Amino acid sequence: MRAAIIVFPGTNRERDMAIALKRVTGTAPAMVFHRETSLPQGTDLVVLPGGFSYGDYLRCGAMAAQSPIMKEIIAFANKGGHVLGVCNGFQMLVETGLLPGALLRNATLRFLSMDCHMRVERTDTPFTHRWNAGHVFRSPMAHGDGNYFCDAETLKALNAENRVVFRYTTPEGEVTAEANRNGSIDNIAGICSPNARILGLMPHPEDLVDPLMGGTDGLPLFTSLVDTFATA
Q1: Which percentage of the chain shows pLDDT scores above 90?
Q2: In this model, does residue 219 exceed pLDDT 90?
Q3: Domain of 124?
Q4: 37 exposed, middle or buried (CB, 10 Å; 0-12, 13-18, 19+)?
Q5: I need a labelling partner for 181 at 20 to 30 A (CA). Which of 41, 47, 115, 189 fits?
């Protein structure tokens, strides 16, 4: 699996993502600067990592969505390429229109830096088939604008098309307001595109891929991707 991590001014989670990808592939991913206009030849997966691209000015991810490399990423995605957006990367995906909705200020109006729990709602995607349906796993979150919102029609479509991939829950898997720290509509933590090849989520599974990190809860996301390309 040949991965490319896109680096913007203000990105600060690219090294964490690189560690996670190298952990499962044995190969360091390519680092692609935002001013580039093409992806490395043979790229299988594009990753938009977390951070504060362009200082989160205007809107989180809005300026990054206009970067030169983004035209190539949109073309890559429209051709069926696989794209993973985590935290700020998720915000970029909605700003480009590759995923629907918006990420608003947390309902608490405070930056949240803590662990959360997510329930796997769908396991037939390139990112999730190593999990069982309904599995609950722990993941760190660190964001100020992670409150996912969409209109009623979009929410109905996301649920009808089974595009909600992760939901915030209690450790026991219950969907509650208390488990939904940022106030996201319908406890949505992550969604995918209609072809399931684009995934956006706010928490950071890349932070838990090795026992030395405190756990391996996030590892199945990355091993699922390796499986996907091994059988492609």
Answers
A1: 97
A2: yes
A3: 3-230
A4: exposed
A5: 47
pTM assigned to the model: 0.97
pLDDT at 232: 66
Q: Is 204 labeled as catalytic in the residue annotation?
A: yes
153 is catalytic: no
Residue 203 is predicted with a pLDDT of 99
Q: 211: domain CATH number?
A: 3.40.50.880
Catalytic member of 60, 87, 150, 192: 87
For every residue of the chain, DSSP letters joined together read --EEEEE-TTB--HHHHHHHHHHHHSSPPEEEETT-SSPPTT--EEEE--B-GGGG-SSTTTTGGGSHHHHHHHHHHHTT-EEEEETHHHHHHHHHTSS-SEEEPPTTSS-EEEEEEEEE---SSTTTTTSPTT-EEEEEEEESS-EEE--HHHHHHHHHTT-EEEEEE-TT----TTT-TT--GGGEEEEE-TTS-EEEESS-GGG-SBGGGTB-TTHHHHHHHHHHHH--
